[in-house]
């Protein structure tokens, strides 16, 4: 065999192909600059907040006021029922007494810094009182800055 491809012959080395990507990088940057210069930036239009679907505004005069204040140096939130500071156990007892008079509603005012878990605990207590007493208890939640 004369071509070097058989037994005992020398093998040809494959030629390495070197691909120059410099022009491709240049074209990419040119396209990037072109699109940056020709594009126009438009601000998103202001969106209107849709109206409430749940009905009309709640009459706050017919509600029992329950205020949740953010903790100042303590881990637990401060709870006030009708202006009087109470614990969760006292809240449950007071709401049970109020439920003895029949159906009522509670307006939960929470400070902006109150954690949602604190509000959830109070909602759970209200739900337990409603279940145990068999009385329907309405709830509404609002944000109020107290301090």
Q: What fraction of the residues are assigned to beta strands by DSSP? A: 15-25%
Q: What's the SSE pattern? A: HEEEHEHE
Low-confidence stretches: none
The number of helical runs is 3
> What is the average of the pLDDT values?
80
Neighbour order of strands in the largest sheet = 3-2-1-4-5
Shape: elongated
Please report the total strand number as a whole number: 5
Helical content class: 25-40%
Radius of gyration: 36 Å
Structural class: alpha/beta
What is the distance, rounded to the nearest whole angstrom, between the alpha carbons of the first and last residues?
100 Å
Q: Would you give an account of this structure?
A:
The protein has 3 helices and 5 strands; from the N terminus they run αβββαβαβ. It has a 5-stranded mixed sheet with strand order 3-2-1-4-5, covered by helices on one side. Helix 2 runs parallel beside helix 3. The chain is α/β, with parallel strands linked by helices.
């Amino acid at each position: 065999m004369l071509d070097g491809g058989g037994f005992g012959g020398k093998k040809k080395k494959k030629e390495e192909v070197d691909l120059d990507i410099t022009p491709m990088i240049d074209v990419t940057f040119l396209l990037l600059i072109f699109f940056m210069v020709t594009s126009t930036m438009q601000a998103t239009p202001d969106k209107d907040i849709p109206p409430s679907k749940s009905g009309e505004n709640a009459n706050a005069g017919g509600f029992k006021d329950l205020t949740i204040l953010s903790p100042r140096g303590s881990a637990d939130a401060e709870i006030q029922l009708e202006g009087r500071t109470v614990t969760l156990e006292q809240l449950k007892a007071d709401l049970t007494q109020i439920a003895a008079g029949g159906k009522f509603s509670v307006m939960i005012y929470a400070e902006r810094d109150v954690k949602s878990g604190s509000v959830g605990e109070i909602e759970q207590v209200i739900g337990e009182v409603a279940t145990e007493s068999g009385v329907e208890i309405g709830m509404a939640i609002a944000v109020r800055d107290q301090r």
